[in-house]
Amino acid sequence: MYKTNNYSKKFKHLLLWIKRKTILIITALMLGFSNSINEEDKSIFGNQHYIEQQDKKE
Q: Can you give the pTM of this predicted structure?
């Protein structure tokens, strides 16, 4: 029977934990950026439609 090295298991577990947390942070940042871009697009295009409606009334 051969003995497994506990340090290598702990190191692999630590690397997987760091990888998961990094992916989670990157995903959260991407969602935040896309949400802010979406809100900006809504405000720009919504304002354009409102201005066009005002031009037609005059």
A: 0.57
